Amino acid sequence: MSKQLQFKLVLLGESAVGKSSLVLRFVKDQFDDYRESTIGAAFLTQTVTLDDGTVVKFEIWDTAGQERYKSLAPMYYRNANCAVVVYDITQSASLEKARNWIRELQRQADPSIIIALCGNKSDLAARRQVSQEEAQKYAEEEGLMWAETSAKTGEGVSEIFTAIAKKLPTTAAPSSRAGAGGRTGAAGGRSGVDLNRQQNAVSTNEPCNC
Predict the structure, then answer these.
(1) More confident of the two residues 120 and 175
(2) Cα(204)–Cα(182) distance, integer angstroms
(3) Hey, which residues does 194 pair with through a beta bridge?
(4) Domain segments of the chain: what residues?
(5) Which pLDDT score, from 0 to 100, does residue 108 have?
(6) Do 81 and 168 touch, CB atoms closer than 8 A?
(7) CA 161 to CA 84: how far, in whole Å?
(8) CA neighbours closer than 13 Å in the CB half-sphere of residue 55
(9) CATH of domain 4-201
(10) Residue 42 CA: distances (Å) to CA of 45, 60, 140, 142
(11) Res 196 pLDDT > 90
């Protein structure tokens, strides 16, 4: 039986940079031109199968970008294994907001968290305000993963989540499942949850909250 691991992933970034569209493209391979702003946070799951057969299940928390919801963010990134901080390549101010989120994660999130900086809306390159060189240089200085994506066309979307999955540890510590603001790993750290160990505890006739 292939190994199945579960990790908590949070999306952060200014409102309207395309966080929800990015998740929708990754989870359902869909794009909606007229998505309403997220209220609080949305929860979705998706799996990635690595080359060695390991199945990585992401518990994805898509947080609202509006300032009034900012105080809720720590509830979602606390004990997260990985974070995708999204900016809009056509809005230079959104990169500055992304830098603020990254500083906050570096101060308050788990020290072992994997952070990916993601420049969305690459399909609007003609309106670009943030150069690839500037974003990539910043990511390298801060030790972040970096990529550009287009939630509209799908370009680069599955690649960034797969790259994150490959960087996560594939050794799992016994642990309870991560819940709403929950803990992932025995000490709330980066260890994945081995879903194979939990299968017997989950009835196949009942919805699984894992």
Answers:
(1) 120
(2) 23
(3) 5
(4) 4-201
(5) 96
(6) yes
(7) 9
(8) 12
(9) 3.40.50.300
(10) 10, 8, 30, 28
(11) no
* Token pair of 120 as six digits: 């969305």
Q: Two tokens at 73?
A: 């963010």
3-state secondary structure the chain: CCCEEEEEEEEEECCCCCHHHHHHHHHHCCCCCCCCCCCCEEEEEEEEECCCCCEEEEEEEEECCCHHHHHHHHHHHCCCCEEEEEEECCCHHHHHHHHHHHHHHHHHCCCCCEEEEEEECHHHHHHCCCCHHHHHHHHHHHCCEEEECCCCCCCCHHHHHHHHHHHCCCCECCCCCCCCCCCCCCCCCCCEEEHHHHHHHCCCCCCCCC
pLDDT in the model for residue 185: 36
Helix 19-28 and helix 157-167, axial crossing angle in degrees, nearest 10: 80
For the chain, percent of residues with pLDDT exceeding 70:
78
Q: Does pTM top 0.85 for this prediction?
A: no
